[in-house]
């Protein structure tokens, strides 16, 4: 009876994981990078911390949301504050608004390749992206496409949402914010 119960539990866990993981999942490294959307100190809270991260293929990037109402949207270097294309790329959705402390959920995605992954916050109230709320994973440090330049280029843009349904996340998954 005990053995049966644990097998059933294992199967449930496995199925749950399969359903939540993206279709193009690569082998996991077990490494998790935690990035805070929002800040208690920098730029009036409109800041990702850390905002320039180096990660390996298979690493997970887990966004924790601090006060205000932030998102994470994948972008290109050339078009700051705009999603890759409608329906493409990573989007957390507007699911993490919090007045104090961290949101009760986190948004996680897995690094699929070593290409620079540009992202921004798509909150229009307060112009978060234009104010410098953007970041990068695996910036090419030999090139001139830097995060500092992305921020300068973002100043005169208009923020675009990835889809009409601003609650629907894509390219990653939402899970409870577990204490470390
Ligand atoms: C978060 O921001 C979005 C977009 O501006 C808005 O539609 C939504 O109502 C906000 N949520 C909360 C809880 O403030
Ligand atoms: Cu924001």
Overview features:
signal, alpha+beta, Cupredoxin, disordered N terminus, 180 residues, Ser-rich/MCO-related, binds copper (II) ion, 2 helices, Immunoglobulin-like
Brief description of this entry?
The protein is of the alpha+beta class and 180 residues long.
User: What is the level-2 CATH architecture name?
Assistant: Sandwich
Please give the CATH class.
Mainly Beta
Name the beta content range: 15-25%
From the helix content, strand content and strand pairing, which structural class follows?
alpha+beta
List cofactors, ions and other ligands: 2-acetamido-2-deoxy-beta-D-glucopyranose, copper (II) ion
- Output the radius of gyration: 17 Å
Uncertain stretches? 1-20
Summarize the amount of helix as a percent range: 10-25%
Mean pLDDT figure: 89
Count of DSSP H/I helices: 2
What is the succession of H and E elements?
HEEEEEEEEHE
Count of individual domains: 1
Q: Biggest sheet, strands in spatial order?
A: 2-1-4-6-9
Head-to-tail CA distance between termini? 33 Å
CATH topology: Immunoglobulin-like
